[in-house]
Specification:
Elements (H helix, E strand, L loop, with lengths): L8 H35 L7 H14 L4 H26 L5 H40 L1 H7 L4 H34 L11 H11 L2 H27 L7 H29 L1
Helix pairs in contact: 1-6, 2-6, 3-4, 3-6, 4-6, 4-7, 4-8, 4-9, 6-7, 6-8, 8-9
Length: 273
């Protein structure tokens, strides 16, 4: 303020910048949540799944899930040998094998499995979706679809969001089964764990609770759904030049990673409350 008690323009501009910096993230979150709810509700109606949408949905699953099975199995083998097997050795040596199943379910099923698969899908499919949508916008394909009377949300977002979400869930299940089975089967070649394989699998089976299944579904389906939505939105915002396509892909990855961590923390807190 000046000596007359009036607010100076510079002070007003500073307040405007502060208010914009605070309100913009909140508005982005509200827009993302409302868009996700709308697309999810749209997907619950069978009439929305015409042949064109089903084709995009199947192709998205083929790219995101089917073509990535080998890499996910390999990662599951590494986690099974590096984490599950070492945990088994430590628990049996300490005489705490009765708690092994609960700990492995808590670590692999609830946390490592969904997190690893989501990171893999963001790095592989998230960038591809953002680049694809950005290229379509830049080349004018979206305008052609609109001129033909097609709803872009219906044709572009709906099958990709559900395709990525279903793919993340399936890959998470494959990752968890592979890592758990690797740790149990590897005990046949470890002298200290011989004869413990049957007990190991029984402990794992007994430790899996309904809350663990719900946790795995939520941590795989929700982040996967939001990843596709975020990458589609960032891709559609790059309409200036070809050089904006990699920038859109990078923004999509960063925003997807941030959303993944936030959603994972929220679900974890809700699980243990």
């Amino acid at each position: 303020m000046n000596r007359d008690g009036k607010t100076t323009p510079s002070f007003l501009r500073m307040l405007e910048r502060v208010g914009e910096a605070v309100s913009r993230p909140f508005a982005d979150v509200c827009t993302l949540v409302s868009s996700a709810v709308g697309i999810f509700w749209m997907g619950l109606h069978p009439s929305r799944w015409n042949r064109a949408v089903r084709t995009v949905f199947v192709r998205q699953i083929l790219f995101t899930a089917f073509e990535a099975v080998g890499a996910i199995v390999f990662c599951g083998l590494l986690i099974g040998l590096g984490v599950v097997l070492q945990a088994s050795l430590a628990f049996y040596k300490l005489g705490q094998e009765s708690h092994l199943g609960k700990v492995l379910v808590m670590v692999i099923v609830r946390e490592i499995g969904p997190l690893m698969v989501n990171l893999f899908v963001i790095a592989r499919s998230g960038t591809a979706i953002a680049s694809e949508i950005a290229t379509m916008v830049l080349m004018g394909d979206t305008r052609v679809l609109e001129s033909q009377g097609m709803d872009l949300t219906h044709y572009l977002l709906l099958p990709r969001c559900f395709g990525v979400a279903v793919s993340v869930f399936c890959l998470t299940v494959i990752f968890v089964i592979t890592s758990m089975c690797t740790g149990g089967l590897a005990s046949f070649w470890i002298p200290a764990l011989k004869g413990q394989s049957v007990r190991y699998f029984n402990d794992i089976y007994a430790a899996v609770m309904p809350t663990d299944i719900i946790n795995l579904v939520a941590k795989s389906f929700i982040p996967g759904f939001l990843t596709a939505l975020i990458c589609c939105r960032t891709g559609s915002s790059s309409t200036v030049a070809v050089t904006m396509i990699p920038i859109a892909s990078a923004k999509g990855v960063v925003h997807s990673l941030t959303t993944l961590l936030v959603v994972t923390i929220i679900i974890t807190l809700l699980t243990y409350l």
